[in-house]
Amino acid sequence: GAGPRRLRAAAMAGFVRELERRAGPALRLEQRAAGGVGCVVWDAALVLAKFLETGACPLARRHVLELGAGTGAVGIMAATLGANVTVTDLEELQELLMVNIENNKHLVTGSVRAKVLKWGEEVTEFLPPPDYILMADCIYYEESLEPLLKTLKDLTGPDTCVLCCYEQRTMGKNPEIERKYFELLQRDFELEKIPLDRHDEEYRSEDIHIVSIHRKQMVGPQ
């Protein structure tokens, strides 16, 4: 009968996280209780989403790509600020991304779509390079560092701004992975930490960092 089916639907529905916005109704983000790392709204995603709302980066009519989007919180926030956004993650997260895009589409003033992007693979369909690449908490295992860096190199043009927000974790291998990531990144990119006082005054934390990343300009023979 309807009983067990309704229960299963409720279990699959996950739980909703509301993210207040400065202007207008909150974003409603479904999460999945079961199913790996991509399915809850991590603190770094909240911090980055709220940083975008400060207006520090002009997003209206800009092309924005989110890597490792998970629930899509950051990319959807950018779309409510007028950006044309593509949120990307693995195949198994597409359904959750679609649900969250659908749930918030009435708040979007730009545009937003979800696509599969596997780090390290072909990115032609995402070119020309976007104006912004957004990443929240994308550095957590070593195997993904090289593919992620390849994807960043393939996707960035001279004017692309990459905003990377991450929570500094002191457990296990995390510090080592973090150090290695920034070391590798600095071969091709310039990094600049965004000071805490420029983060949203409420959504900020000493151990959550936002780094603005640009391709190093190749200086040819003078």
UniProtKB/TrEMBL annotation:
Keywords: Methyltransferase, S-adenosyl-L-methionine, Transferase. This is MT21D methyltransferase. It comes from the Eukaryota. One of its GO terms (molecular function) is methyltransferase activity. One of its GO terms (biological process) is methylation. GO terms for cellular component: cytosol; protein-containing complex. The keyword tRNA-binding does not apply. Pfam families: Methyltransf_16. Transmembrane segments: none annotated. It comes from Loxia curvirostra (Red crossbill).
